[in-house]
Amino acid sequence: MKEIYFSSVITILIALCEAAQYTFNVVSINKPFYSMGVKYNGIVTELPLKLFPLYSGSITADNINEYKYVLIDKSTGEKIEETITRVYKSENKAINEVYNRTTKEVKIPELPEPFREMFKMGTKNFKPFPNNDIYNVYANCDPTSYDNLKATPFVAQSEVNESIVNCEFNIITRKSAYQGKGTLHVIGFGSRKYKKLSWAIKLDEKFHGRKAIKLRALASDPTLIREKVATELYNAVGVPVQEGTYARLIINNDIYGLYTFNDNLSSKWIAAYVHGNEKANVGMTYKIYNSGNNSHGLKYLGDDPNSYTFYKIDEFDETKYNSKDKNSLYSHIINFTKLFNDWEVNYSNDTSEIAIKKLEEFLNLESTLRLLVIDALIVALDNFWLTGANAALYFNPEKNNYQLLPYDFDLTLQGSRGVKRLAPNEEFINDCETWTNYDESDNIDHFFTKSLLKHPLIKKRYETILAKTTRITFNPDVISQYVKALAELIKEDVQWNFDLIDHLSTSTEGKVNHFSYSDFEGNLYSTEIDTSDTIVDGYEYGVIDFVTKRSSACAEFTKNIDVSKIENENDKKGFSDEDDSCKHSISIKFSFVLFLFSIYILYH
Ligand SMILES: *[C@@H]1O[C@H](CO)[C@@H](O)[C@H](O)[C@H]1NC(C)=O
Ligand SMILES: *[C@@H]1O[C@H](CO)[C@@H](O)[C@H](O)[C@H]1NC(C)=O
Ligand SMILES: *[C@@H]1O[C@H](CO)[C@@H](O)[C@H](O)[C@H]1NC(C)=O
Ligand SMILES: *[C@@H]1O[C@H](CO)[C@@H](O)[C@H](O)[C@H]1NC(C)=O
Ligand SMILES: *[C@@H]1O[C@H](CO)[C@@H](O)[C@H](O)[C@H]1NC(C)=O
Ligand SMILES: *[C@@H]1O[C@H](CO)[C@@H](O)[C@H](O)[C@H]1NC(C)=O
Ligand SMILES: *[C@@H]1O[C@H](CO)[C@@H](O)[C@H](O)[C@H]1NC(C)=O
């Protein structure tokens, strides 16, 4: 009786096995012209299109163990098998895999944060994007305007084409698929000279709480990680910065390759990251540009708003400012520069704490100094301190003060590129404070930063932040862990990304770097770039090589600073909400006491 029962169980089990359903979800990384299939037990089965580039289907089959995805040329029927072999797991049902990319979870370590946080850096509904997924973005755009735009990213010599193109966007993540309408436009100035363009997308419906996304091409970076590392460094010291993850980008029939997929400097982002509340009223944002002789180092230029139009008005609360009235729009930049000018006149020679107190009445000094420390450590060639570019001055209405918001870190962690402001040869790398002042014949005005660092107390605080950041975060041990994890995440996309550039159809002659996988690996650590590759950007340092040298120079420069004493009041500046890190440590202490008490009870 028992035996009959047992064998029928086995029969049922076998029948169940035979009838098993296997679900496959795979993202194509090719043109819409191809479809996808799955090959198992020698059979290739085509998978239905779910939402390009995602193909999904369930197959009822005998035991499927090993399988491969197959790219199918719809016109010729040609089938191209991926190189890797996969093993089916029940979790596959819930995961979107990617053709020829291993399905893996990479843990990206957090960089240690040396200071107390000053800003919320996101909200429940506006969290940072997960940093270990590579999204897949397909933009299906109006073909004529898209083709025209990519052919003419500039309308004149140095005038950008701001046209927008209507598109439908599909965004496939590891676990979700988004579809929505929106627009696309080209972004950047220097980056627009490359054949691999950078783009911004504006969505009608939110994705992950956002409507605005920047896709940056990383066209000059053989490692594809410099911007990520730089972003994470500002983040680690508590300077709000637009962050994100990576994405593979396809627009119409153009496969662009690997991009960063980042937040934009939008009101929503400011509300969430700076104010910790997506519905917060934002103040006024002015983008600061390196506009040649117009860079006045945040100097006061009188009360006529027309003198300030080289600052670009950016995100602001339209209910509070009259967008047609220059006096209203420029009032904050006029106020700020006037306040700073007056401070400089009245207090910069006052070496007491009063000068600091007066400055902090209108400037978030702590956040400013932390930004300057990271600009210096990564030798940011096209950012606030050196060039007066790629930062915004934000009037924070909640605190009634001003702060700087940095962005776009493509020219970092690589050396000097022969920029005249930096000391020649390797000398600049040893200068961690006056590094921007070697040769000032370029007319870039450093009034603001020079006035700050002239003050002994501010200089001391700068050096203390530098010391602590160098010891805790910006050193080769910490950064190489982070770099390794990023490299692990993207390594299978690297050669594919570099090779695509020659297949990209466009009528403009953009700049092209023909990097290879070995350049990627070589430049992560040292300068190694294969000289037989034709490239337009030179590299003096590999990322880790650079971090090692810069970190050791700035550690030497600050070696006499006692960082144990600096968990001081300054760390809290700008932190308005109640201090939960303190509550947290109280509760840890309380649990520890409870724990000791239980041990006591146990033994008595
Ligand atoms: C898959 O990727 C590897 C590199 O990771 C590459 O060498 C190979 O050519 C790719 N295979 C296909 C079919 O794309
Ligand atoms: C700018 O791009 C648009 C595409 O949206 C194109 O139609 C137009 O010709 C471009 N402008 C110039 C001056 O080339
Ligand atoms: C990004 O934000 C800027 C303001 O900083 C705005 O001008 C631009 O249109 C935004 N881009 C998108 C795609 O929303
Ligand atoms: C900038 O200023 C310098 C000296 O004041 C002058 O020689 C140069 O022509 C100016 N450049 C521009 C673009 O105005
Ligand atoms: C500018 O500063 C003055 C005096 O400090 C203040 O009364 C005024 O409200 C400020 N205006 C703006 C727009 O911040
Ligand atoms: C600071 O200096 C300005 C002149 O630049 C003067 O008008 C103002 O009254 C001074 N303020 C204080 C508080 O000393
Ligand atoms: C500050 O001190 C320096 C040197 O003593 C002097 O040259 C300068 O004029 C002073 N600045 C002001 C605003 O008093």
Set down the secondary structure blueprint.
Layout: H1 2-18, E1 21-27, E2 34-40, E3 43-46, E4 49-51, E5 54-60, E6 66-73, E7 79-81, E8 86-87, E9 97-98, E10 134-141, H2 143-151, E11 154-156, E12 159-160, E13 165-172, E14 177-186, E15 199-207, E16 210-216, H3 226-236, E17 244-251, E18 254-263, H4 267-273, E19 284-288, E20 312-316, H5 326-347, H6 353-360, H7 365-377, H8 384-387, E21 391-396, E22 401-406, H9 447-454, H10 456-472, H11 476-500, H12 517-525, H13 543-557, H14 580-603
Parallel strand pairs: 1-9, 10-17
Antiparallel strand pairs: 1-5, 2-3, 2-6, 4-5, 6-7, 6-8, 10-13, 11-12, 13-14, 14-15, 15-16, 16-18, 17-18, 19-20, 19-21, 21-22
Helix pairs in contact: 7-10, 10-13, 11-12, 11-13
The structure holds 2-acetamido-2-deoxy-beta-D-glucopyranose (7 copies).
The site of one 2-acetamido-2-deoxy-beta-D-glucopyranose has 3 residues, from helix 5.
